[in-house]
Amino acid sequence: MDGGGRLGFEDLFNASLDKLHQARQGWDEQVQRLTEMQEPAETMAGQARSASWEGENATVTVPHVFAQAGQFEAALLQATSIRNICRDGYHRLKGYQNRLSELIEEAAAEGVHVDGAGRVDGRLSDLDGETRRIRQERALAVSQSIESVLQSATEADQSVAQALRDAKGTDPNSFNPVEYANLSQAETAYADAQHFIELAERGSDLSDEELRTFDWLAEYYADDPVFAERVTLGLGPEGTLQLWVDLSSGNWHPDSERWQILDGLQANLGNLLGTATRSDSAAMEQWEQEMLELGEQSINGGPYGYQVMSALMRDGEYETEFLLDFGEGLMDFEMEFVAQYGGSDPVLGSAGSPNWRLWNSETRLSFGAPDDFGLDPVVGYLSALSNNPEASTAFFAAPEDFDPSDRKSEINPRLAYLSQERTWWTSSDGFAPDMIGIHPIVGEVLVAATTGVSPDGLDVTGMDEGAIGDFRTVDSARVMDQVMQLYGTLDPELLGNQPEMSSAIGFMAGMYMDDINYAVSGIGEENNPDQADIFATSYGDTLESGRHASIRFLSVIGKDEVAYESATLLQHVYMLGKLDEFPPASQENFLAGSQVLSAGGEVRGILDHARAEQVAADYIEDADAAAAALASAAEWKGAAVGAGVGAGVAFLTAPVTGGLSGLLVPIGADMGGEFLTTFFEGLIDDGSDPDGEAEKAGQISRQEFFQAGETDIATLLDAYTQSAAQYIDGESIVVHRGLVEYSYGKGRESEQDFGYAPH
Fold first, then answer.
1. Do residue 194 and residue 117 come from a single domain?
2. pTM here?
3. C-beta neighbour count of 506 within 10 angstroms
4. Tens digits of residue pLDDT in 218-228
5. Are 385 and 325 a contacting pair, CB within 8 Å?
6. Do 546 and 635 fall into the same domain?
7. Which pairs with CB-CB distance under 8 Å and at least 24 residues apart come from 521-527?
8. Angle at Cα 302 formed by Cα 299 and Cα 303, nearest 5°?
9. 718 and 605 in one domain?
10. CA 159 to chain centre
11. What is 409-471 written as a DSSP string?
12. What is the pLDDT of the chain when averaged over all its residues?
């Protein structure tokens, strides 16, 4: 019915609302069909995630299946919303149509006639004066009642039309996952969007109470794509930046009410803008392009557009192409400035940095930590990247000619710049920087880029919701190859100078334990094709770093206390999962399990030798301190405080730092057999140390430290061969026991031969 104007009497009275009712019934049937299809779609996605895909099936088919399953959910939400709007719209308009009929009947009973065009006739001829006056007043009242009904019906018609447009969405290629339980909810969302824009136009003039309302609206509608796009377009790119600069301008104390509101608003507004960027509408594409053009411009005479937008980007999931374009512009802008105006700050001297001269500003842009003004746009941008693993992987994509077997092969220039060349600082105020080695956000974004998992979702809830799993791809593996090249080959002392990266490096190593074990084992398709699939990965490929590069990388990890602890823990859990994957009920499985134990023993030997060597160097003149450090290193099992099995990964909670709240390691899909179960139950029982054998606080000698490592491998070997005794002949068991027992010592020798001396 909606024609953009006021409904006339004939429009409403003669409207065929049966079509709207039929539409409601049609959408009701569509909702039922989609509901029936949703469960198979979710099952299909679950099976795709748990299956051992290889090649293009792993990198193309699986993501496609996940995307289609997500579209089923969006389609169901959209269909349900349209059904609800049609239902409520029909009842509301039918009510107004019925009211017109009632008014006509009531008027006729009192002698007032309403014709087919809605004209009211009091039929006053032949009436005496008083009766004429009463009839005339009644005719006027009927006319006013009809006008009121038509006005209300017009508003309802426009609301239905607007709600249907909102439910339809602006992206012609995707379903719109907006959720309206009824027409009133859609009307409220529309009105709230208008109110949000009105509040935004007042900026810093808003009272605390009004600002709380503004913040509440941003939080409530953060995931509503219709609301997000409407207000984002309403603000406009420049208006968005000016709004945040306007709100941020003020000397707010961290304990003040205003500060607390702005802290929440920064996150909620960032989430809202991120939702809007995921729209593919032409209007949002134009918004994004204009935002990119504002990056190099000063906003309200203060910070650059890059700084303001990146402060809001710290929270939210932003669209991939927008993120990549934003990052390219930001990095080019900074790197060109540094190249042109490099050197120390003329006022701050050596404490200054070239990028500080570019970004320093008196306007606070972030309201999280009081000692962080939020002036470094690279930090905010990398935060946004870490929330979008796909964009992170693309941002750090390996150069076409990158070859990890070449010790001099160059890595992605952005990775090199951020990790080796860039000067990092925090901004406790707008006048002087506090220099740091590197910001922990670099580790977080590399975790996302190499694993496909956002560090922000590393909790048990994330695993329950399917946000945590084995999402590695060939492209993410190429990023991991570069990380190993950087820290293990190009600059082996880098990690020692960047303690902020320790937990992230240990995390990444753990997530690629299948590849690392495969490389260290020496098993390859060229010389041992029958056993190459023992260490098969979920993404159907493997790291290209090779045996010696992997040993060098492990050597670097072993020398770092935090990275060693994480990597050793994850290596142990990885072995447990592989032994569960190959229970020794057949000769073939027993051979596979033996290879797993041999490779695992060598990896553990490399890590332990590197750690012992570094401890000896660190405490060369203090034997007691060295013995205490070795005892602490032997407590690696105590790092885990909880665990669970998800889709192709084991998830362990641990008191790690750097923004990471958990650790991941690949295991057989949904595998939770005897070895893992025993380990996990130990965590549940006492919170750590499932075997009860790790050294507690105290001191141990270097020899005892290595004996503890050998014992860990021997304990697994004993349990595995004991289970094999009823299936495998004793001679085979003896032979393979010898190979496994030799592996730990081989690992120590490998680290000594191919690793690095302590730093």
1. no
2. 0.84
3. 28
4. 999 999 988 99
5. no
6. yes
7. 521/595, 521/598, 521/599, 521/602, 522/547, 523/595, 523/599
8. 75
9. yes
10. 35
11. ----HHHHIIIII--EEE-SSSS--EEES--THHHHHHHHHHHS--GGG-SHHHHHTT-SB--
12. 84
